[in-house]
Design goal:
mainly alpha
């Protein structure tokens, strides 16, 4: 078998292509060379020494079949995520039988515990380690249901890593104003989009529907569309705008076909991240201003039929007056 050579990607990362798959190392050539020599002594040697006859398929063959099944049934995106989760197990070199020689019955709680410790030391986040362990368990259970392995794995208790709880960030209206001001310097087309997402707590996809006029105005300051929450039921999602929000509606232009294009534009120009965060900021500031929770739910467009019926009977005057408590001026 021809020994694969190490190459350099256009991004500067060194990698090896073997059997149609890429194994990446790092940007440092010396460190990549050392990792490549270890890779030759480990993974490639075990690949070349794979036995021709075995009672069960190897773990790599099961993983390929499982990823193909996920691709057919769940889509390309989830298949890519599972491939990334299963790669640490395929590259794990902590025992004598790994890679293509690792058998399904060798995967137990002790091996997954060692794999989790190895991933943490390699710099993986605890949430990623837990996703990896759960993906391995799902793959082996799937193989057992299809009689690809003789007996199901004994993985009732996964050695998951404790995930620290996220600390709440300090939010203030100044952050939203700085975000819009920074976007105005680089691209003025983003100003009405970001302002409406914050002032009316819209989803980015709803702002795109508003820009392309995919709904209708039912009264002053209230716009009805088929939204994310009501798309399956056939009902309307009512977007409520304050007087300041209506000023941005008149300046809104369909500069992007979908909200993905606008979101990518925001991430490339703004240092605050995606526009979805502005929606949560607006809802947080409404609650801090003393707005009742049913009113906030009505503004957000959550699937609470009671709150929607309540405001359909009384009108949206209370919701519009509540939105006047947040401003970008």
């Amino acid at each position: 078998m021809r020994v694969p050579s190490m190459r350099r990607h256009k991004t500067g990362v060194f990698f090896v292509r073997h059997k149609g798959k890429d194994t990446y190392f790092s940007l440092d050539e010396a460190a990549s060379r050392r990792a490549y020599e270890q890779w030759l002594q480990g993974t490639w040697a075990r690949t070349a020494a794979e036995p021709a006859s075995s009672s069960q398929p190897s773990l790599v063959r099961i993983a390929d079949a499982y990823l193909e099944y996920v691709y057919r049934t769940r889509g390309k995106k989830l298949s890519q995520d599972y491939r990334a989760y299963l790669q640490p197990l395929m590259r794990y070199g902590g025992g004598p039988e790994v890679g293509l020689l690792l058998r399904p019955q060798d995967v137990n709680v002790a091996l997954l515990d060692a794999l989790g410790i190895d991933m943490i030391s390699a710099g993986y986040k605890p949430r990623t380690v837990n996703h990896t362990l759960k993906a391995i368990k799902r793959m082996l259970m799937w193989a057992a249901d299809r009689d690809m392995i003789n007996e199901p794995p004994r993985l009732r208790r996964l050695p998951t890593v404790p995930v620290p709880k996220p600390t709440p960030k300090v939010l203030c209206a100044r952050n939203a104003r700085n975000w819009v001001a920074e976007a105005a310097i680089k691209d003025e087309r983003l100003v009405p989009w970001l302002s409406l997402i914050y002032l009316s707590c819209l989803r980015p996809s709803e702002a795109a529907s508003l820009a392309h006029d995919r709904g209708e105005w039912i009264e002053e300051g209230v716009y009805a569309i088929r939204g994310k929450t009501t798309g399956s039921t056939g009902d309307y999602r009512y977007m409520v705008f304050s007087d300041e929000g209506l000023e941005h509606v008149s300046a809104l232009r369909p500069c992007w076909k979908t909200w993905d294009g606008m979101s990518r534009r925001c991430r490339t120009l703004c240092s605050y991240g995606g526009p979805r965060q502005l929606r949560s900021w607006g809802a947080t500031h409404l609650r801090r201003a003393g707005v009742p929770l049913p009113t906030v739910r009505c503004v957000l467009g959550h699937g609470d039929g009671g709150a929607v019926d309540h405001y359909l009977e009384r009108g949206f005057a209370e919701a519009r007056s509540a939105l006047r408590r947040i401003t970008l001026r």
